[in-house]
From TrEMBL:
<dbReference type="InterPro" id="IPR006233">
    <property type="entry name" value="Cys_b_lyase_bac"/>
</dbReference>
<dbReference type="InterPro" id="IPR054542">
    <property type="entry name" value="Cys_met_metab_PP"/>
</dbReference>
<comment type="similarity">
    <text>Belongs to the trans-sulfuration enzymes family.</text>
</comment>
<keyword id="KW-0456">Lyase</keyword>
<dbReference type="InterPro" id="IPR015424">
    <property type="entry name" value="PyrdxlP-dep_Trfase"/>
</dbReference>
<dbReference type="InterPro" id="IPR015422">
    <property type="entry name" value="PyrdxlP-dep_Trfase_small"/>
</dbReference>
<protein>
    <submittedName>
        <fullName>Cystathionine beta-lyase</fullName>
        <ecNumber>4.4.1.13</ecNumber>
    </submittedName>
</protein>
<dbReference type="InterPro" id="IPR015421">
    <property type="entry name" value="PyrdxlP-dep_Trfase_major"/>
</dbReference>
<dbReference type="GO" id="GO:0047804">
    <property type="term" value="F:cysteine-S-conjugate beta-lyase activity"/>
</dbReference>
<keyword id="KW-0663">Pyridoxal phosphate</keyword>
<dbReference type="InterPro" id="IPR000277">
    <property type="entry name" value="Cys/Met-Metab_PyrdxlP-dep_enz"/>
</dbReference>
<comment type="pathway">
    <text>Amino-acid biosynthesis; L-methionine biosynthesis via de novo pathway; L-homocysteine from L-cystathionine: step 1/1.</text>
</comment>
<dbReference type="Pfam" id="PF01053">
    <property type="entry name" value="Cys_Met_Meta_PP"/>
</dbReference>
Length: 386
């Protein structure tokens, strides 16, 4: 896919080759384990083949890999059956006894748990750092540091990191950088354009867009691909072609969905700022947010996920609010067409920076509904608090 095309064109066409599939507009689902090779010479040279065994990919999964490369401006891509598996493959690729990794204190919970369980058992030390660190990250680097992990914004507290500065410091020390780019969907932010080596996403979220698919994506520079692929192959990681097909279908509407999430999310966030029940709104797209300038520097827009803090903390009163919703569901994940809202406690994931809000933290995902209906439902919920 030509890199000079604009993002909306890229997500519409990336990974498509109708002429290679009898003119079919969408890549068909190839369900295959065994791939027959036509000659002994081909068998003898199978290492050079892209299509050789189902676990190593099918035309459907290869199309999605190509599309992810185009979306993230990366050289290569790998696909995993979940976002957590994508995280695990990357961390394991740089794990060795005595190694040290730096992880933002705002990281997704399972990222921390993997570091504290699997990596610790392997003799890898993890240091968590303040997500506000920029140049200061250099003071935390050790001779044995192999990896710096970022997440921007943090999916619970929504701090924006100075990605390019951290990547520049890491590159000067020969250290690989990774970012969890799920919040942007790969549409509003291109980390590799800012010096990052590896960008992962839970494709379950915005790439899928329909809350019916488990997927992880790893987009990387060519320099990191073979190392990642070795771990990937040794663990037998792969995805099914049906899931790849659903992801490709979701990708075609990514641009229009992300723009709607941006507009509707900001409308709801701005309304929340005016409500007496709300202490603070955690949305980097708001002009008074402390991370707003960094967000403007890096992002082309905002997704539908953000947070806010309300005064009320009594669980019985909170139950009256949350149990009465009909448009907002309570459940794990986000990034689908539907709106979600859950009370959260980010403090349990903090070890370097503190999270002591003056009330109850709430995480909200604004879906594709009319924001006026969502606002009316939240207002009714606040009224139920009494």
């Amino acid at each position: 896919m030509k890199s000079e095309y604009r993002p909306d064109t890229i997500v519409t066409h990336a990974g498509r080759e109708p002429a290679a599939h009898h003119g079919a507009v969408s890549v068909p689902v190839y369900r295959a384990s065994t791939i027959l090779l036509p000659t002994l010479e081909t068998l003898d040279n199978k290492e050079s083949l892209r299509l050789r065994y189902g676990r190593r990919g099918t035309p459907t999964t290869h199309a999605l890999e190509d599309a992810i490369c185009a979306l993230e401006n990366s050289d290569r891509a790998l696909l995993a059956p979940s976002g957590v598996m994508a995280i695990s493959v990357v961390l394991m690729s740089y794990a060795e006894p005595g190694a040290h990794v730096l992880v933002t204190d705002s990281a997704y919970g399972p990222t921390r748990k993997f570091c504290e369980s699997v990596l610790r058992k392997m003799g890898v030390t993890t240091t968590y750092y303040d997500p506000a660190a920029g140049e200061d990250i250099e003071a935390l680097i050790r001779p044995e540091t192999r990896l710096i992990w970022m997440e921007s914004p943090g999916s619970q507290t929504f701090e924006i990191q100075d990605v390019a500065t951290i990547a520049r410091v890491a590159r000067s020390r020969g250290i690989v950088t990774v970012i969890d780019n799920t919040w942007s969907g790969g549409y509003f932010f291109k980390p590799l354009d800012h010096g990052v080596d590896i960008s992962i996403q839970a494709g379950t979220k915005y790439i899928s867009g329909h809350s019916d698919l488990m997927l992880g994506t790893i987009a990387c520079r060519a320099s990191e691909y073979e190392r990642l692929r070795e771990t990937y192959l040794r663990f037998g990681v792969c995805i099914g072609s049906d899931d790849a097909y659903l992801a490709l279908r979701g990708l075609r509407t990514l641009a229009v969905r992300m723009r709607q999430h941006h507009v509707a999310g900001l409308e709801v966030a701005q309304w929340l700022q005016q409500q007496d029940e709300v202490v603070q709104v955690l949305h980097p797209g708001l002009p008074d947010n402390p991370y707003h300038n960094l967000w403007k520097n890096y992002f082309g827009g905002a997704s539908g996920l953000f947070g806010f803090i309300i005064h009320e903390t009594d669980r019985k009163r909170l139950a009256r609010m949350f149990d009465g919703f009909s448009l907002f569901g309570m459940g794990s994940s986000w990034g689908g067409f539907e709106s979600l809202m859950t009370p959260s406690n980010p403090s349990v994931y903090r070890t370097v920076t503190s999270w002591v809000p003056s009330g109850q933290t709430v995480r909200i995902h604004v879906g594709l509904e009319d924001p006026r209906d969502l606002i009316a439902e939240i207002r009714a919920g606040f009224d139920r608090l009494g």
